[in-house]
Each structure stands twice: as structure tokens, then as C-alpha cells.
Amino acid sequence: MAKVHMILQGKGGVGKSFIASTIAQYLVDHGETPLCIDTDPINATFAGYATLDVKRLEILQDNEINSRLFDTLVELIARAKEPVVIDNGASSFSQLSNYLISSNVADLVLSMGHELVLHTVVTGGQALQDTLIGLDSLCSQFPEGVPIVVWLNPYWGQIEAEGKSFEQMRAYKEHKARIAAVVKIPDLKEETFGRDLSELLQERKTFKEGLDNSALTIMTRQRLKIVRDQLFLSLEASRAV
User: Fold this and answer.
1) How many domains does the chain have?
2) If DSSP codes are grouped into helix, strand and coil, which group holds residue 180?
């Protein structure tokens, strides 16, 4: 059985591709060879990670899901022997979600002997409410048998509203039974850890590439190692993969 990890969120620029690459890197670090697919029709950031061998598949055309290209995606999933990681863009969130639901793709994936796992992200700052709406949409529309993993990304601000943490918010309380795990992305100091990670992401490099890059300072590599280890430990603890 292969786990099919799909990253979905209707708000753009909140870290979906970072999450997809982190999942893929974690799997590689644990001896897996994940099939990585980028379906983002506009910003194919995930596809920029050359060492992850990400396949680009533009399933959205003329603002609608192209059924033939979606069929190709399903065929790739069906043949997969190891985990699958799929990053989807914000611009096709509604269309793809509706298509997945109307086509009973969750049941189809299960019939293949695989498991579909949805990952979404909630951020702090101005995007908090938009990302909570995206979470609510996934939890409300997808079948109860589909586990949903929530990633908390504090890069744009603390994830809180009216003094309430995420676990105290209505969106979490209403869908607690649907949320299989919560993965917390470290709150990084912008001038050190945050800058080092940001530069790595801008270059579409994996943590391993950064750690193997002797052109980076020793402390830069040390900080990247700390961030990687924190993320991997959080994933390990959540059992999300």
C-alpha cells in the first residue's frame, strides 16, 4: 500500500510547496523514493526541486479540470509502489477539490490498495481566516475516512485569534474528529534561521543539498540542520506520513 499525500489550500503563498518538499525529503531520508507531482497551473514551485524529480502535470486548463490529464494523474497513482506527494496550486483548489469529491477519488484510491491523506496549512497574520476557511472546506466536503493533516505555519505571525490558539478555535473544535494530526512548523528568527531557510527555498534546494554545500558557512549549515531535524521530528511524532 502506498500513501498518497495531497497538499490542498485555497490561499496562495502560505507554504504548500514547502510542505510538499518537506514531506518528500522526509520520505527520502527514510529510504523511500516518493513519486512527486506538481499540479500547480501558475506557480510550479515544487517542480523546481530538481533532486526530487518532480513531475509537472497541468491538470487545470481554461479554469476547468482537464479530465484526460486528471486520468494521467490517477494512472500514475495506480502504478505507484512507494508514497506519492502531490502539490496543488491555490488557483485550482476549488476545481480540484470538487473534481476529487464528485469522482469519488478517495474510494478509488482505496480500491487500489492505497491511502489518500490530505494536508493543508493554517497561517498566522492576515491569511489566518482565509486558511481556516480552506480547512473548513476540506473537512466539510471530503469523506470522513480521508485523514486530514493540518500544518501550522507561523511565518506571517502567531496563529491565534482573540487570544485563542489553533486548538481553541472553532475550526479545530468543529472538525477535531477529522484532523488526524497537527504539524507545527518552527517559528524561526528572521535574521538567522529564517533567512537561511528562505534562501534555501528560493534556490529550490533540499536540506541535504544545503548541508552538503561547502560554500555555505558552518553555522548556516548547522542552523539548516536544526530546522530540518525539528521538522522531521514533528512529522515523526504526528505519524502523518
Assistant:
1) 1
2) strand
| Residue 214 belongs to a domain | no
pTM score of the predicted model: 0.95
- What local confidence, expressed as pLDDT, does residue 39 receive? 94
Asked whether the beta carbons of 27 and 83 are under 8 A apart, the reply is yes
Checking if the pLDDT of 91 tops 90, the result is no
Instruction: Give pLDDT, residue 185.
Output: 93
Range of the domain at 152: 3-188
CATH of the domain at 146: 3.40.50.300
CA dist., res. 221 & res. 198, Å (int): 13
Is residue 101 a part of any domain in this protein? Answer: yes
Question: pLDDT band at 188, cuts 50/70/90?
Answer: confident
In a domain, 86, yes or no: yes
Kindly tell me if the per-residue pLDDT of 189 is higher than 80.
no
pLDDT of residue 19: 97
What are the beta bridge partners of residue 65? 60
Q: Is 211 inside any structural domain?
A: no
Angle, vertex CA 149, rays to CA 204 and CA 77, nearest 5? 70
Q: Which amino acid is at 11?
A: K
| Amino acid, res. 181 | A
Report how far residue 99's alpha carbon sits from residue 60's, in angstroms, rounded to the nearest whole number: 11
Helices (H), the chain: 16-29, 67-79, 93-102, 105-111, 128-141, 170-175, 195-202, 207-211, 218-238
- Please name which of 44, 71, 47, 45 lies closest in space to residue 36, comparing C-alpha atoms: 47
